[in-house]
Amino acid sequence: MTLWHKVVPLAAAALLLAALWLPAGPVLTIASTVMLLTAVVSAVHHAEVVAHRVGEPYGTLVLALAVTAIEVALIVSLMLAGGADKAALARDTIYATVMIISSGVIGICVLLGALRHREQSFRIEGAGPALAALTTLATLILIMPVFTTSAPGASYSTTQLLFVGCSSLLVWCSFVFFQTVRNRDYFLPASDTSNEAVHAPPPSNRESWLSFALLMISLIVVVGLAKILSPAIEAAVAAAGAPHAIVGIIIAMVVLLPESVSAVRAALANRLQTSMNLAFGSALASIGLTIPVVVTVAVLLDLPLTLGLAPKDMILLVLSLFVCSIGLGNGRTNMMQGAAQVVIFAAFLFLALVP
Fold it and tell me: Which of 59, 132, 143, 305 has its CA 20 to 30 A from that of 160?
């Protein structure tokens, strides 16, 4: 671990604390943006150190849980501050997260990995059940509210919200048990004798705990700086005349940036199994943990919560999950699969800007 990896999270945390008293302005915005990006790079490094120490799939689970916890805190804080104006923020962020993961991250990993290594393999025994769980949660949370009749609009009634929140938590807990206890071998990469990382000695306990602490600091800083930048982001979105859903997409992209960078680096290093673990673990944690907390806050504080998607978004979501399921069919990937998923991701971004 270099001095840079130790100093950057602390410097970014110092800027975050100073920003509480500094006046808002272009200087603070630029400084926050630069430190946010460096904190992301630092988080990726420390996550990889922790992952190498605890091994798969626990390493990817640590990063997924940490990032999701921070994402939940960010969504809830914005909901409490915005009230009725933020009724669709949780929906926009979760939908963006699923699309970023299922078409963006997986598509880019598959495409870049195929361009460098032609074909890559992963354990379909783990990816298949993960995709089934993701499809179930996405349908219950983002599609079904449009077709229920107990509440007006694209919303659930209080009873339905509680049922969906409990169901989401149950599916996520079942997946974690399946991934880490019952069928852990389904998520372990095949041994690669040409990969030096497989045989590299693990970091010491001291270095691992230090990396874990710096990882937590880096993730808190990422979300804290993202919240500081959110007024500037919302003002820029409004000035550009773009739909308000863009704010949710930007939040999801910022929060998922550490995991996305880690997944792409793993794919380029011919460790696609790690990329799949990160991608599906992040998506499932994002839904399975975010929805129960958001539902609890909305019910207890009587906040409006809109979950159902517009028809255009539903079609894109179904298309993304369908193409992803085709790509997972035989446990091997190629360039064409990645290209198709990247095109879907590009369509998601374009149609968000030009609905």
Answer: 132
